[in-house]
Amino acid sequence: MPEVYHKDPAGCQILSYDYNGFLVPSFPNVQENMDRLPDMPVRDDDVFLLGYFKAGCHWMWEISGMLLNGSAEYSSLSKDIAMMEYASQDQIDQLPSPRVLNNHLLLHHLPREIFTKKSKMIFMTRNPRDIAVSAYHHTFQLNSFYHYDGDWKGFFEMFLEGKLNYGNWFQYMLQWEKDIKDHPDLPILIVKYEDLKKDPVGNVAKVSKFLGLPKNDQLFKDIADKCSFSKMRVAKQEGDILRTSGESLYRKGVVGDWKNWFTVSQNERFQVECDKFDKQSTLFNTKY
């Protein structure tokens, strides 16, 4: 799989791998992992967690796992070994059922058996401005994967042009919208990050209902509390993988932090792309 180094205006590079025109992170054995996914066996109770990176998938992985296990306890496992483009087949095979398998891929990358087994899928969405800011910090901190030394100004240009892992957010979302509409028989629940922040208990209950689980109001409250950002940030430490000591992939978890980062000019340029997107999309939008 060829390495791709896209440069920002200052010459700082982001490392990606080109998988048949789709940019993926430089994970170990990522080509082998991607190649095997279409033929990967799917269990009847597998749940697939989808969405562009930094849309809240870590958060939903913990919530859905707690719901499936009927307990508001954090998983002792790392989400990485349930991440389909990162984990080996052996790691995924060893996960106990029911599995929540996370990925940031497109539908055609996923196991073919999801179409026959009608696997349940949860798709996370989030304000793309907040995604861009969160993606910057994620990419900068995980230097061993991305090798990016640039600043927000440079990263903004890369994000707008889609020259980073998982590609252009707007194109990614439009492709998923097409795939969802083309496969109305696939059970896909769309969850907005902002809705989950506004009403965590109600949205935990919505996910539980989608998964076909018993109604349990106390469990929903306990999970919402345990999965609050402040508690997860303390409980889910990343060790020494981040560039800056004391930083966390659970950075802020707030809605609207983009306002602290976007300049007026950046926001105006971003809005042009949002307007184009909103004219094409009926399922998603950028109005938050």
From TrEMBL:
One of its GO terms (molecular function) is sulfotransferase activity. InterPro entries: P-loop_NTPase, Sulfotransferase_dom. Keywords: Transferase. Residues 44-275 form the Sulfotransferase domain. Belongs to the sulfotransferase 1 family. This is Sulfotransferase family cytosolic 1B member 1-like. It comes from Octopus sinensis.
